Amino acid sequence: MALFVQQGFDETTVAQIAEAAGVSQMTFFRYFPTKDAVVFDDPYDPVIADLVAAQDPGLPAMERVRLGLLGAWNSVPDAVDDATREKIRLIAGHTRLTAGIWENNRRTEDLIVEALTGTGVGRVEARVAAGACLGGLTAALLDWASEPDGQELRERMSTALDLMGESGRTARRNR
Amino acid sequence: MALFVQQGFDETTVAQIAEAAGVSQMTFFRYFPTKDAVVFDDPYDPVIADLVAAQDPGLPAMERVRLGLLGAWNSVPDAVDDATREKIRLIAGHTRLTAGIWENNRRTEDLIVEALTGTGVGRVEARVAAGACLGGLTAALLDWASEPDGQELRERMSTALDLMGESGRTARRNR
DNA sequence: GGCGAAATGTTAGAGACTAACATTTTCGCT
DNA sequence: AGCGAAAATGTTAGTCTCTAACATTTCGCC
User: Fold this and answer.
1) Would you place residue A67 in the very low, low, confident or very high pLDDT band (cuts 50, 70, 90)?
2) Residue among A93, A76, A83 nearest A38 (CA)
3) In A, which residues are within 8 Å of B135 by CB distance?
4) Which CATH superfamily is domain A2-35 in?
5) B107 touching A, CB under 8 A?
6) Beta carbons of A162 and B60 less than 8 angstroms apart
7) Which among B100, B124, B131 has CB closest to A99?
8) What is the pLDDT of residues B76-112, one digit of tens each?
């Protein structure tokens, strides 16, 4: 990560990383399947799925996902640490890495869909709800990384989820 | 594309593609920046931005994007042709290519954001609305490609956009 | 100390992509 | 037709990520 930040992601070769770590290139690839993988490691998925599943089944799918995600972000104890912040910024400034976020989101999406369909929601509806919420959330995350405005990340995530919901709809109604 | 479908994306080398096309490998890369680029070529973006900009500015951002996209899909004359269908299926069956969709979506997202902020919507709100709608739409597209249920693509896109809107919310309310 | 297993290393190679430079093809113009 | 400039294509050599096969070292445990 230090090398990436110093000289950029593309400009850093695996050989350099390996040398800095005092191991051979081969060893690097035994710990990280790809060079990209160094930057991606989120273990939050299961919490999210549980919280989505716990929402009132009477609500529309979109709303259940939204509230589940809101709960998940509020359950993250304190502010995001600097290392994470750096990672997100690195990703946001790199087109291919940004796209790579979606390889992670896909796993989250699948779990959410599973949680929803398990309680009677249709497959398509579940996919759309999960995709939309994750899409809005990711957009907010990337915006936060590239145009810092002092807002805390968790607060930003809340704002985003609100904007996708009823309150976001009514907020602008009488402008 | 024929080669990709026959033997898979990863299993097809650009040397093979070049040979099949009767050109050198170098020439291939002069026409396509990457091997992935063969699969990605959507020129629909400008239409979308225009239609989003044309929505009633009194509506919330999320709604304007939703309706704009709905209009865009309805303006695509007739059903998607087989070649496109094949491309989508190819992408949907390949993790890295699926993530690659978002390199395209990002461009679309930027245009939508531009259209919205140009009419007074806040930056974050615009990003979230665009990200959410594109997220839901893409999820529906990928689901359509991997689990065919006879529904036409355009119809599927309409369904998806409805689910993200007011109607999607009320539809399930009295179940 | 010694044995088996896990971790690490070496070497060779495939495949995507780039850069520099040479060659051919195309095309407007006389 | 024929000339010359510009565009398209080719050749070669190289970098970098990632893989496979196999050798070597290190470590925990008896």
Assistant:
1) very high
2) A83
3) 131-136, 138-139
4) Homeodomain-like (1.10.10.60)
5) no
6) no
7) B100
8) 776 677 788 889 999 999 999 999 999 889 999 999 9
Closest CA to A160 of B161, B131, B63: B131
Per-residue confidence (pLDDT) for residue B17, from 0 to 100: 96
CATH architecture observed for domain A39-167: Orthogonal Bundle (1.10)
State pLDDT tens for residues B166-175: 655 555 444 4
Give the tens place of pLDDT for each residue, A92-118.
Answer: 999 999 999 998 899 999 999 999 999
What is the rounded distance in angstroms from the CA atom of residue A1 to the CA atom of residue A144?
20
Domain boundaries, chain B: 2-37, 39-171
- Which among A139, A112, A144, A129 is positioned nearest to B109, based on CA atoms? A139
Q: Is residue A149 over pLDDT 90?
A: no
User: Which residue is closest, via its CA, to the C1' of C14?
Assistant: B13
Q: Which fold has domain B39-171?
A: Tetracycline Repressor; domain 2 (1.10.357)
User: Which nucleotide across the nucleic acid strands is nearest to A11, CA versus C1'?
Assistant: D16
Nucleotide closest to B31 measured between CA and C1': D8
Q: What is the CATH number of domain B2-37?
A: 1.10.10.60
Record: contact B102-A101, CB cut-off 8 A: yes
Pairwise CA distance, residues A144 & B148, whole Å? 37
Are A140 and B124 a contacting pair at CB < 8 A? yes
Nearest to A168 among B62, B138, B172 (CB): B62
